[in-house]
Amino acid sequence: MKPRVLVAMSGGVDSSVAAALLREQGYDVVGVAMRLAPEPSVPVAKRRGTCCSHDDFEDARRVAERMNFPFYVIDLRADFAARVVDNFVSEYLGGRTPNPCVMCNREIKFDRLWSRARALNAEYVATGHYARIERGSDGMFHLLRAADDSKDQSYFLFTLGQDELARTIFPLGEMTKTEVRARARALGLATADKPESQEICFVPDGDYASFVERRSDPARLRPGSIIDGGGKRLADHAGVHRFTVGQRRGLGVASGERLYVREIRAELGEVVAGRREELDSSGLIANRVSLVDGSIASGGELSVEVKIRYRHRSIPATMRVDSLRRAEIRFASGGPAVTPGQACVFYRGEEVLGGGFIERAITEGRAN
Amino acid sequence: MPIYLDHNAGSPLRVEAAAAISRLLADAGGNPSSVHRAGQRSRRMLEAARAQVAAIVGAEPRRIVFTSGGTESNNLAIFGAITAASRRRKIISSEIEHSSILAPLAELERRGFEVVRIAPDSDGRIDPARVLAALDGETALVALGLANSEVGTIQDLAPLASGCSKAGALLHIDAAQAVGRIPVDVAALGCDLMTLSGHKLGAPAGVGALYVRDYARIAPIIFGGPHESGVRAGTPNQLGAVAFGAATEAAINAMREESERIGSLTMSLLNRLRETIPGLRLNGPLAGRLPNTLNLTFPGVLGESMLIALDLEGVEVSMGSACAAGAVEPSHVLRALGRSVAGARSSLRISLGWDNTADEIDAVEAIIPAVWRRVAAAEPLSEASAR
After folding, report:
1. Which pLDDT band, with edges at 50, 70 and 90, does A300 fall under?
2. Distance from CA of A27 to the nearest CA of B (A)
3. CB-closest option in B325, B379, B383 to A115
4. A94 pLDDT more than 50
């Protein structure tokens, strides 16, 4: 038998097929479903297509039974709360827009789960992510976009370095979603036609503001004013966590022109509104930068493409990484709205070079 | 073959129980309440099983009511006694009972009853003096486990009978975990009610019994026909009862030999693990414990991780309170014994039984330390995981 691989199973079709494919290839598959979210506070009727429900675990268990490999539900609620949810809340309170899926991959799936894999004598961790890992002739591992560009999830995986890539398998990287569903049906998996999950798993009703309010000490909320670029007060608001840079709706400002959130000054409780063109930026500063191959940092200025939101196209830019794991990104031409807290991922063609978390936009001239 | 060390959750079917089931399947009788001879034959088998089950606790057969298991027996004892004692509003129990006692008591509390839960000492012993001190003219029922399913502590309950009787309260003993593992006698304990469970001693799950000293003092909780002395309506689970009877008889016959053999295998395992795992802690007392049960805190690891790692190595143990959905709360028993949340999360229950062999325990004595070393190195307890 091939080595043991711990497969993270959500009960969805992707991870079901990932596990089944590895089993067919002769790996010693051990399936695990991670209980991550605290007990749901949302009525069952409103929880559609989210993970961590009992039904989802039972779906995963049925796949394991069908494919004849062991399966366990593991309780990572405390780690998830401490390392993903608390971060999510404090980012919103700080006026940033977090991406909890990136944090979950970094902190849970490719850290916490990896420890569990070693404890269970597994050599690899596998997930149903759409991304590819290739080993170059120099022995280095490369993280590549998925063959199915419409499903590509490499954006969420930029924190993986050489150590992680060496022991990770993405069985779906070469497949399209249609192929995955067809494979699931061919294997008789109960999850073949399950709908996609869309929302953030621990906020199944999509109401982030209420979630942040429930999870925060009221003293940490920062209510204040919506102001224009000149500092004029336009309206009041109940807290900066209710806003995201680039947002148009819900400003509660009566104005002749369309206004967007341009900047959030969390300490002051100020939300700066502006016209569409005032959102444009020439680049950004990213912090907590990680690189798939750390040696590229010494290369000075690099030509890359960057993706600053999961659903955005990547755009050409130049990048310089300093020793403090900060990167300065300059867009080749006028850039879109930059949302602090989101991930900025660096690509070169198919390949993920790394990424970081957006600290702020650069609107003109050189950054400090 | 996996090595099964989770007998407190459920013991594998005894050979004698399997044989009794086969015989009954070949000769499936009628309804034991029927007049015809098929019914009479069924009744004879059911009553023979009742006598076998009664014998293991020294009871008269007619004092035994067949139920669907320990949980139903505890529910019948508690709700049945409370309903019959209509005026009294107080129940005395402990913090370390099985959920089939704790949950009914929580429900009664919601309905306005007073529930006193005595705290155990750090080894899980309930001081009988504290129970007696809580007894008064308002007390309808004292409900306590004879042997704790998680840590194996055996309670000294004999001193309670006269106090309960004087106060006019019923004494209910949950002996599900004790019967078949240690000698149990209803007369020596002086109890009014006693719960027995089939699958803890090698019968299939789905059958249990309640000993009832005086049928006038409990009311039914399931209504229907006049079966089972009028306190448990519904045609009894004939197959389960016959298997329960056979398993009970086998357990009585084997008890002395088994408890010595299993006790010495258990002690050997404990001693070997203590030598190889520095900081290993036994939860519950060294003496006055079920001979088959070890509840151990493994330093620096999550019990959940150890449990899965051991399962993948073919050793089947448990966390005490099982939840297949993966939301394992720290054991209420270990918390009541004063263990920290982290300590409770680092603990496993190993419970031996009739089918374990010396060779199996030899193998386990090597596997557990190796797995512990691997898990401790790979996945040290994080602050978050211990919360």
Report:
1. confident
2. 15
3. B379
4. yes
CB-count burial class (<10 Å; 0-12, 13-18, 19+) for B70: buried
Minimum Cα–Cα distance from B371: chain A residue? A119
Give CA separation, B83 vs B17, B75, B89, B161, in Å: 35, 12, 10, 21
**Is B375 an 8 Å CB contact of chain A?**
yes
CATH 3.40.640.10 in chain B, residues?
15-250
Best B305, B308, B374, B387 residue to mutate vs chain A (most A CBs within 10 Å) = B308
Closest residue in B to A71 (Cα) is B308
CA distance A84 to chain B (A): 12
Contacts of A65 in chain B (CB under 8 A): none
- B378 contacts on A by Cβ (under 8 Å): 115-116, 118-119
Mean pLDDT of B130-154: 97
Do residues A131 and A141 touch, judged by C-beta distance below 8 A? no
What's the rounded Cα separation, in Å, for the pair B138 and B167?
Answer: 8
The fourth-level CATH superfamily of domain B3-9+255-378 is Aspartate Aminotransferase, domain 1 (3.90.1150.10)
Q: Which CATH class is domain B15-250?
A: alpha beta
**What structural domains and CATH numbers belong to chain A?**
4-186 (3.40.50.620), 222-278 (2.30.30), 280-362 (2.40.30.10)
C-beta atoms of A121 and B328 within 8 A: no
Tell me: pLDDT of B129 over 80: yes
Within 8 A by CB and 6+ apart from A295, the residues are none
Catalytic residue positions of B? Answer: 323
Q: Which of A200-209, B35-44, B293-302 has the highest mean pLDDT?
A: B293-302
Check pLDDT > 60 for residue A41.
no
- Chain B residue numbers with beta carbons less than 8 Å from the beta carbon of A82 are 383-384, 387
CA distance A2 to A24: 11
Strands B293-297 and B281-283, sheet pairing:
antiparallel
- Strand, helix or coil at A318? strand
**Residue A205: which of A34, A40, A33, A35 has the closest Cα?**
A40
How far apart are the C-alpha atoms of B204 and B13, rounded to whole Å?
6
What CA–CA distance (Å, rounded) separates B5 from B262?
A: 11
Tokens 């404990």 -> residue: B270
The CA distance from B29 to B38, in Å, is 5
* Burial group, residue A34, by CB count within 10 angstroms (0-12, 13-18, 19+): buried
DSSP type of residue B318: B
Interface contact flag, A121 B312, Cβ < 8 Å: yes
Q: Do residues B237 and B207 make contact, with C-beta atoms less than 8 angstroms apart?
A: yes
